[in-house]
Amino acid sequence: MPYKQTKVVLNQCVADLSQLAMVVHQTHWYMRGSNFLKLHPLMDDWMADLNDQLDEISERLIAIDGAPYSTLKEMAEHTKIADEPGTFAKSIPERLTILARDYRYLADLYQQGIEVSGDEMDYSTQDIFIGFKTATEKRLWMIQAELDQAPQRNN
User: Fold this and answer.
1) CB 103 within 8 A of CB 143
2) How distant, in Å, are the alpha carbons of 45, 67, 75 from that of 139?
């Protein structure tokens, strides 16, 4: 089966992008405090970006004869991003710290995709992974800057 491991990573991305979009949505709904007026609408942009990535990843998976997860049950069963109930008890910095953790995981997953798709010589998918990893690292840098932290290097 061609691109076997690439398909596995692509489908992992489907589950994790879906879950991360929900984490961002939860942040959007439950944030309060300093920078709310700036960050609340920004979460809409981040959700749209994640959904765009999800669509491109899923369509690529289909194009190489894969089958993306397409139910909430499948997403929940396969995601590696933590799920926790929403609460107003978390501060904006706590919420951003969670997002930083999850975006760091996503950047690492994209790195795994870069390596696997390269090994399987699926350079079109590798190009997608490279672009999304670059964008995710930029997003992570911005979150860390908002938290007054220096960038942390990923792979």
Assistant:
1) yes
2) 11, 28, 23
Q: Longest Cα pair distance anywhere in the chain, in angstroms?
A: 52
pLDDT by residue, tens only, the chain of 155 residues: 699 999 999 999 999 999 999 999 999 999 998 889 999 999 999 999 999 999 999 999 999 999 999 999 999 999 999 999 999 999 999 999 999 999 999 999 999 999 999 999 999 999 999 999 999 999 999 999 999 998 776 54
Domains of the chain from N-terminus onward? 4-146 (1.20.1260.10)
Residues 6+ apart with CB under 8 A from 50: 17, 20, 21, 24
Burial class of residue 103, CB neighbours in 10 A (0-12, 13-18, 19+):
buried
Structure tokens, 66: 């894969």
Q: Which residue, chain included where needed, has tokens 């004869």?
A: 65
Distance CA 151, CA 1 (A): 39
At residue 142, the 3 state secondary structure works out as helix
